[in-house]
Structure formats: C-alpha cells, structure tokens
Amino acid sequence: MRPYLSVxxxxxxxASFPLLAADYTFKYAHSQTDDAPRSExxxxxxxxxxxxxxxxxxxxxxxxxxxGKEEDVLQQVQMGLIQGYRGGLFAQANPxxxxxxxxxxxxxxxxxxxVMQSELGQGIDADARASQLHxxxxxxxxxxxxxxNNVRAVNEVADLRGMKIRTxxxxxxxxxxxxxxxxxxxxxxxxxxMALRTGVVDGQENPxxxxxxxxxxxxxxxxxxxxxxxxxxxxxxxxxxxDQLPEELQALVDDVAVETMTRSNELWLASEANxxxxxxxxxxxxxxxxxxxxxxxxxxxxxxxxxVERGDFSRExxxxxxxxxxxxxxxx
Length: 332
Hints:
Elements: H1 3-13, E1 24-29, H2 37-52, E2 57-62, H3 70-79, E3 84-85, H4 90-93, H5 109-116, H6 119-127, E4 133-134, E5 138-140, E6 146-149, E7 164-166, H7 171-179, E8 183-185, H8 192-198, E9 203-206, H9 208-213, E10 222-225, E11 232-234, E12 236-238, H10 239-243, H11 247-279, E13 284-287, H12 290-310, H13 315-325
Parallel strand pairs: 1-2, 1-3, 7-8, 7-9, 10-13
Antiparallel strand pairs: 3-12, 4-12, 5-11, 6-9, 6-10
Helix pairs in contact: 2-11, 7-12
C-alpha cells in the first residue's frame, strides 16, 4: 500500500493518536504499580481530561517510579518540570497535612474524607501554594492502618508494651507507638517480611491491602483492627503549570481532579474490605471495644499536643477536626 493510502486508511478507521498537538501537556508520575487503585484512578483522569478539553490538554502517565523516587518527583513538580504527582511526602507540601495522620483521630476513612472536603481541608490544600503546589483535592491513601504481631492479641494498651513494631519513618507513627509503650523499629519496607519471619520485629502496621500484597500475614498470627491512623493523598499539581492555563481549563482540571479522587477513594476502600476477608483466613482477627479504644485515644493525646506545639497545625485546626468528627468531648 502506498504511504498516503495507508494514512487515509488509518484516518478512516480512527487513529489512536491525536491529529493535532495539544496546547498543554500534563506529565504525571507516582511510585505505585500499574494495578494499584491510584493508577486506575489516574487512567480515569487522563481519559476524562483529554476528552473534556477536546484534546487541548494531553496527559502522560508514568507509574512504578519510572521518573524517580518520590522526593525527586515532588521537587520536579514544584519546579514545573513535571506537572502532577500523588504519593507520600505530604508534609513537605504543607506540614498541616500531618493532622490527618494523628493517631486515633479518626474512627473511619469516611470521617477523614469529610474533613478533607470541608472548609478546613480546603484551607490546608490552599496553603500548599507556599510550596509552589496547587492542590485541588485530597483523598485517602488506602484504608485505616491496622496492627499485626506474633506475640498476643492486642486488646488493651498494656498488650503493646515492649513489642518491637516495624514502622515507617513518619514522626506521628514513631511517637504514637512510643506513647503506647511499644518499641518502634526502623526496617526497610521491602525487608519487613523477613524481619517478621525471623523475629527481628514482633509486628508491623499497615492497611489490609499492604499486609496482603506483601504477604505479611504468612509471618504473623494476630491482626488487631486498631483503625489507628490514615494517610492523606493530596493531588499535587505544579502551580507554575496551572497558573498558565486559561481560566476555563483551570476549572476543568480542578473538576476532573475532584472526580478522580472520589473514584480513587471508592476503589481504595472497596479493596480494603476484600483484603480483610482474605487476611481472616490465615490470622486471628480481633477488634477493640469502645472502652478499650478510648484508652488508646487517651494515651496518644500527648502526641497531638506535640505537633500543635511544634507548629505543624494549630490548636484551632485540631479542635475543628475533633468537633466535626464528634470526638472532642472529654479531651483536654
């Protein structure tokens, strides 16, 4: 077939590539796999934004850390070299994001999502502008974090005393387990399975999806539904790139980002329920009573106070969260 006939045939069948160059390119990266709920939601973002912008914005997706480590990617977003990112390091965008990671502040992911979508949450997003980031919406990065161990079922604060618990290097997590009498241990995530298997650590904490994906349940006997912490998932967008868009495209990016995060939250939380069922097949699962949970809350209130005093978020912000969730009564 002659070259020009080949082109005509391609056009007749419908080309899978844009015929005209887009006015703007949105290059996005994160470290999770192609199959992760975050990746699935970002494919929705790409398809929806390209369609609704009539091809004026082209979206390029890079998963699996192909554009670098999270810290490198976030810096490139701040510099405008990459246009979008979702993942960890949220405190670098705005220390106030740590309020969402306070121990035992929320009982359910839905409570956290409600705060994230409130005026308080929108204010935290807006203040990330000081870090050269536009954040139109924040969601949850998986479900509530739970505890596994090989020593005993954890029902009371005293049950945790002396346990060696592997934790990520996140300040609220370290201080929480110290306040609960455990011994937090720094073990690389990829080495945690072997550390559990060999007894280097007694337990670890993660959402059910991570526990199952990393097969920690194969090396652990007890799973306690602590529902003790959740991590935020801000949608980081380069402020430099966003500000150059016409107002109608800025509004479109914001709208599609909000829809994407709603989809992401739904995907995360639905998958967590399925993972819990799977984990129950190999581990003994127990849940805290209301009275026991309150004793955990009382033990970690000093952790909340530490971050208020350090200035990561204000007393007013913490009180607003407690009032919105209905957990403020009885706290000093």
